[in-house]
């Protein structure tokens, strides 16, 4: 029953969200010898790419932090120029050292129905030099329509990314079929919104709560 409701609910958006034919790209070269410890702290989203072309928010940042139960990623953003919001995911750290850049993010929504409580998404580090730039992507595949969706973060340690770092950051994108001309530069002109929401909300970069 629930499945049917969910399907009806999500059928339309599925077509808008999953736009690239086939499965997620595989055999993608990720950052070699990735060192999570050097990746810590705050990153600004300098550019992003969303395969469905939606721009849902501005002023996005990503910050890694340690809690007694693990390492978490706080992704914050400004919605509609008015609301400062954030979502927190737990990093699922691969056990094999050679897979160090193959991270996943796990979101837990305590009040959601059982099937939607825990959601896991890839969070793959394609390239980084730790001090200036990082290129991260996620991909979701829909079996229902045999298409996938990609989101790319071009992250910068400083609010603006220098030209050399940008070149290095965008280089790996051809591997996942992202045309760098379609990257959107984040607007940081209005990053002091009126309202701060102090609760963890749904991420906008991973929009499908369950595999479809
Ligand atoms: C997440 O980051 C935002 C922006 O830096 C901050 O306002 C918020 O307090 C952080 N949330 C937590 C739980 O650390
Ligand atoms: C992002 O910022 C631009 C420019 O200020 C604004 O036009 C747009 O509405 C903002 N988008 C969102 C989702 O807040």
UniProtKB/TrEMBL annotation:
GO terms for molecular function: pigment binding. GO terms for cellular component: cytoplasm. Keywords: Disulfide bond, Signal. It comes from the Eukaryota. Residues 1-16 form the signal peptide. GO terms for biological process: lipid metabolic process; response to reactive oxygen species. The keyword Disulfide bond applies. InterPro entries: Calycin, Invtbrt_color, Lipocalin_ApoD, Lipocln_cytosolic_FA-bd_dom. Coiled coil: none annotated. Residues 120-184 form the Lipocalin/cytosolic fatty-acid binding domain. Belongs to the calycin superfamily. Lipocalin family. This is Insecticyanin-A-like. It comes from Vanessa tameamea (Kamehameha butterfly).
